[in-house]
């Protein structure tokens, strides 16, 4: 990946439920798609894109994405910490549920994440996120297409 290049799509692929949608839509928009996963999550199903495998260490995929994402790239991740670092660099960041992360909401989101972690350390656990639904998938597809359309307008 070069410095002076067209925008690309980077996917935090270990637990991403919308890899096939990303591959299909990304290629429709003629954007290169890079799926970043740890060696313990090697995908046996054939999904079109470039697969980058990193160590199993906790933050390896995040660090790879952080080091390779550039302005106007698209990153799909559910990691709020990674999202907060990327949006400040003018990277488009979407969650697999279709949430578009905005820089203006990062302080509050990270504060809430901190409070939740603090409660977990005390032994207070919440239910966790709701199951991924068909509506979540549709929300993602809509947000992803809208983001890629905006980028296509920038490139032309």
| Number of distinct beta strands | 5
Q: Helices and strands, in N-to-C order?
A: EHEEHEHEHH
Task: Specify Rg, calculated over alpha carbons.
Answer: 16 Å
Widest β-sheet, arrangement of strands: 3-2-1-4-5
Gap between N and C termini:
21 Å
Q: Sheet with the most strands?
A: 5 strands, parallel
Number of helices: 5
Averaging pLDDT over every residue, what do you get? Answer: 86
Structural class: alpha/beta
Share of helical residues:
40-55%
Word description of this protein:
The protein is α/β, with parallel strands linked by helices and 156 residues long. It contains five helices and five strands; from the N terminus they run E-H-E-E-H-E-H-E-H-H. The protein has helices at residues 19-28, 60-68, 80-87, 106-121, 134-155; strands at residues 9-12, 33-38, 50-54, 74-76, 92-94. Strand 1 (9-12), helix 1 and strand 2 form a beta-alpha-beta unit. Helix 3 (80-87) packs antiparallel against helix 4. The two termini are 21 Å apart. The relative contact order is 0.17.
């Amino acid at each position: 990946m070069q410095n002076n290049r067209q925008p690309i799509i980077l996917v935090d692929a270990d637990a991403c439920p919308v890899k096939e949608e990303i591959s299909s839509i990304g290629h429709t928009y003629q954007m290169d798609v890079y799926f970043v996963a740890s060696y313990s999550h090697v995908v046996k199903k054939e999904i079109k894109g470039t697969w980058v495998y990193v160590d199993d260490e906790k933050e390896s995929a995040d660090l790879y994405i952080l080091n390779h994402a550039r302005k106007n790239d698209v990153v799909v991740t559910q990691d709020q910490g990674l999202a907060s670092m990327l949006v400040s660099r003018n990277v488009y960041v979407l969650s697999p549920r279709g949430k578009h992360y905005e820089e203006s909401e990062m302080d509050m989101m990270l504060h809430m994440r901190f409070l939740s972690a603090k409660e977990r350390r005390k032994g207070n656990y919440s239910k966790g996120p709701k199951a991924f639904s068909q509506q979540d998938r549709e929300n993602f597809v809509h947000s992803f297409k809208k983001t890629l359309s905006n980028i296509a307008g920038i490139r032309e």
